[in-house]
Amino acid sequence: MKPIIPALLLALSGLATGAAAESTFEKVKVDAGAQLFAAECRRCHATDADHESYGPPLENILGRAAGSYPDYEYSIALEASGIVWTPAALRAWMEDNDGFMPGTKMRHVGIDDRTVQDFILAYLASITTRDGSKIAD
Ligand code: HEC
């Protein structure tokens, strides 16, 4: 039985390091996403209702029903779309919003680099706190 304990400890410490590396990576992604958001989205989108926002504020956007931010004047296309903002829907939106949803009043943004999308998604997940659960990609 004896050799099992060191092996177990080794496995556990491996797990712990893995988790730490994972969270550092997550933080780097969120920071990069915050910068990309500032460059690509922030001129039209605040993250919360405390700041002026030409487009709808994007707090809690992951898992939110499209067109549901209170008192925002959406296009009919977006309001009637019936979609929920999953990571996949947000990718399609960043890549080609007006192709994905003809009739939207959001001007075309063409972010087709998956890594850039990943970073912005990580940032959007970080401002999504409504149910506190982890957002899967
Ligand atoms: C030029 C201004 C502008 C830029 C830049 C912009 N948006 Fe928008 N966005 C809008 C407007 C306006 C709407 C509302 C569209 C409608 O009602 O059809 C919108 C809507 C959205 C929605 C739907 C929100 C909801 O409540 O359903 C999401 C998600 C979104 N934008 C994400 C982004 C992201 C991410 C970026 C940056 C990559 C970005 N937008 C860049 C103006 C902009």
Write the layout of secondary structure elements.
Blueprint lengths: L3 H37 L35 H4 L7 H14 L13 H13 L11
Helix pairs in contact: 1-4, 3-4
The structure holds heme C.
Q: What features would you describe in this structure?
A:
With 137 residues, this protein is mainly α. It has one domain (29-126): Cytochrome Bc1 Complex, Chain D, domain 2. It contains 4 helices and no strands. Helix 1 (4-40) crosses helix 4 and helix 3 crosses helix 4 (114-126). The longest helix is centred in the first third of the chain and has 37 residues, at 4-40. It is elongated. The model has no long low-confidence stretch (mean pLDDT 88). The structure holds heme C. The site of heme C has 26 residues, from helix 2 and helix 3. Heme C (HEC) is lined by residues 40-41, 43-45, 55-56, 61, 66-67, 69, 74-75, 77-78, 85, 90, 93-94, 104-107, 109, 111, 120.
Radius of gyration over C-alpha positions, nearest whole angstrom? 19 Å
Give the distinct bound molecules.
Answer: heme C
Helix count, DSSP H or I runs of 4 or more residues: 4
Q: Per DSSP, what share of the residues sits in E-state strands of 2 or more residues? A: under 5%
Rounded average pLDDT: 88
> Main sheet?
none
Number of domains: 1
At the fold tier of CATH, the topology name is Cytochrome Bc1 Complex, Chain D, domain 2
Q: What level of helicity do the residues show?
A: 40-55%
The run of helices and strands is HHHH
Extended strand count? 0
**Structural class determined from secondary elements:** mainly alpha
Signal peptide: 1-21
InterPro entries: Cyt_c-like_dom, Cyt_c-like_dom_sf, Cyt_c_1A/1B
Keywords: Electron transport, Heme, Iron, Metal-binding, Signal, Transport
Organism: Sedimentitalea xiamensis
